[in-house]
Amino acid sequence: MRTSMTDIMKDHFQQGLDTAKRAGANAAKLTFYHGEGIKCRFEAGRLKDTGAREAVSYSIEVLVGRRRGNTSGNSLERIDDMIERAVTLAKIGSVAHFETYPVPDRLEKVRTYSERTLTLSREKMIEGCQEMVDLLRAYNPDLFVECSANRSESEQLLVTSGGVCHTARRTRWHLGASVQRTLDTDMLFAGYGRTWLDLNAFYDPSGIAEKIITDLRRAERIFESPKGRVIVYLPPEALARMLLPLFMGTNGRNVAKGDSPLANRLGERVLAPSVTIYDDPHQDYAAGARVIDNNGVPTRKQMIFHRGVLERFLYDLDSAGLAGTQPTGNNGCNPHSPRVLPGGQSSEELLSGIEQGLYICDLIGFGQSNIINGDFSGNVGLGYLIKNGKTVGRVKNTMISGNLYDVLRQNVLVSSDTEYEGRYPHVVIEGVSVSAT
Amino acid sequence: MKARLFEALNKSWADFTEIRVEREEGTHLAYRGREMDSAHCSVFSGGIVRACIRGGWGVIAFDSLEHVEKQVEEACRCAALVGKEKTELAEVQVIDAERPAKLQHDPRGVSTDEKIRLIREYNDIILAAHPSIESSGVRYGDSFRTVHFANSRGTYYMEERPRIYCAFYATARDGSLVQRTGDSIASAVTYDIAVGLEEKVLRVAERAVLLLKSPKVEGGPRTVILNRKLGGIFIHEAFGHLSEADFLYENPKMCDLMFHGRQMGAKNLNVVDDGSLDRTIGSLCFDDEGTPTRKTYLIKEGVLTGHLHSLETAAKMGATPTGNARAVGREHPPVVRMTNTFIENGNMSVEELFAEVDDGIYACDAFGGQTEFEMFTFSAGYGHRIENGQIGDLVRDVILTGNVFQTLGAIDGIADDLEIHESAGGCGKRGQAPLPVGFGSPHIRLQDIVIGGEQSGAV
What we know:
The complex is a heterodimer. In chain A, helix 3 runs parallel beside helix 4 (205-218). The model of chain A has no long low-confidence stretch (mean pLDDT 95). In chain A, 22% of the residues lie in helices and 38% in strands. Chain A starts with 5 loop residues before the first helix and ends with a strand. In chain A, the strands form three sheets. Chain A has a seven-stranded antiparallel β-sheet. Chain A is built from ten helices and 19 strands. By secondary structure, chain A is of the alpha+beta class. Chain B has nine helices and 26 strands. Chain B is α+β, with helices and mostly antiparallel strands. In chain B, strand 5 (133-151) and strand 6 form a beta hairpin. Chain B is globular. Residues 455-459 of chain B have low confidence and may be disordered. In chain B, the strands form five sheets. In chain B, strands 8, 15, 16, 17, 18, 19, 20, 21 and 26 form a nine-stranded mixed β-sheet that branches. In chain B, strands 1, 2, 3, 4, 5, 6 and 7 form a seven-stranded mixed β-sheet that branches. The interface between A and B is large, with 78 and 79 residues.
């Protein structure tokens, strides 16, 4: 970062707390973000653009009595004006379910900043993307290949009237590729990417390309999908997407507002005993790593579903007040970095045990239905037929549907191996309704 | 601003350079359940420089104009690193224009108190509708975006793009069964669209309650009539995105598929994108490359006749720019996007459309939709059985899926009641969302469309 701005902003923000108080606020919170990044993008297998971005922004929250007002902006000259606008808004604004921001508490040490990530130059990113293009084109010269890479560095500042003054620095990179294979109206899309905060061995252009090539190889032939109740195999990326409705259910604000189907079910077994899901914001260099939430509440590693039993809802400061409970340090009541506990068998063993089933990588339309209830229905975008323990070819025109809670309450087998971050294993689900389209 | 932008452009040594600077101010208010849930005001400004050298682009986003000359130079350096071919960008007329907003009722003249009172009333209507209503949500927002654009060909414009929206949903519960319904409305013209929605709001709440007792629709191939909103989303998602030339211009296989002259549907099928429609939510005078917007026929009399273009895709495909290069905000480069996309009127009355259906589904509104080019999946907000030409019982979980090339050919009836929807949501592409777009259709009838879900006897 060319110039750190957080030291200057600390003084500004301490004065900002006084400005808010003078304007009539009984509590205030100010956050600041300053980030810089570089990127490159390949289109049709060729370098298309490269560029950079520098951005600052701030947000302000004030309490006037038991009401909140929020403003945000990026013009530093206008901070005082925006504080006063927040106070005006708070006088008629949203109901606050807390009176003060928490006092400073002990924070875990979690690494989110890596000097070596900053060594990732524009030239090196272009090289990495070119390597992916070359590998993918070597497999099939007719592929339409897109790749992108970016690297960023940022600093954040949180100052609250509770006494918290927390600064954090963060680095981050992303590398990914996607391909389109077109044979008349038969199209296939496959893609894969990785994000991490430290430039370690995860930054692996050839590994990313090989993963896509494996998907393309599996899809070389087309088979008809089995119908009815079918065993489904989900690789880690597909499992991560499928679990999103669960986190709408465990969202404490959804629970308190009556929108969650899991309300009043704490302590009940709602998933298969093989499924344990927890939130771990303390894994060094993970994309979701953080030690403190937006309100100054320390984050923590915490169980959400233990052996299928619903153990906890997640709460930010306001939602906890609404529900009459303690905040769990989760912004927006969402997990920072959810993880599924691995099981006992390897993914190869799980696959080899399936006589007939569907291997689903991508579901078109998942999340577009009455998802908060767990209902899903989607066309299999990329999926393979499993026969006698092996994937034999791609299935098309296949729809799966059901209710996620019903599906995950059945027998679920969880692999011992996970994807690169260690967050999601592979799973096999006993039976999902499959129909032809 | 104009002089400032041209002064900065003088620092460029690229084949082509443009600067777009924006300021956006917005207010967003929300009720959720029994309480006001959020009240937020924002003011952001910033911009982006794009430079093109030998066909390669350098793109620099910034928050302050203070160093814009340096950012122009940096964009040139980035472009020089990329470009190895020839810069090909279509020529369009040079513009020098200012297009202030023409608001009938400016939301900035309405007090925040009044806006809160309005959404509180809607929220109360939902909560009082039925004992099964568990929760509610009403959101109001207005934003005022001012765009200044200049490029190295001498074009300059200033355009104001206001937006006002109101969205509402109801959640009904019966044990662990939760049903959510919603609707929204938006305008680029007047605050008044947010006023007088009481009946609409009540209908949404009542439908959520009715859906609790409604059966799931039976899956399988069916005759389906799409209402105007779902028809509009269908044509936007399933066909409109395929027409965006940035998916085509460097992809010969896709060009082979989406060639002009290809038969896409019946002779009465006409599909249009029109960013020049008078002040709808998807309309704009100039796109974010300075090209005037216009009406483009994508399908005319059942035949593919047009694509949507930026300066680059038009030059490389030998076409005319259509004014469809759009950016969702100040930090994003323009990409090829739709504006207002719709199916034109057919010649059947709605009554005739229904009268010919003995057994089918009337699919209405949408939770959402997703497309992967030839395959699409849409989730209707709700549906009704059609029995002997009459609209029958309510059904839930109506998911439509299929292959767009087959499905456009399956349209066998187009009514004459086109309506263009302006909703609170927007379109997403390449990480840019939500872009305001209009979409519309008359009622359309499709044969043998697959409805997802468990088929009887299948499981």
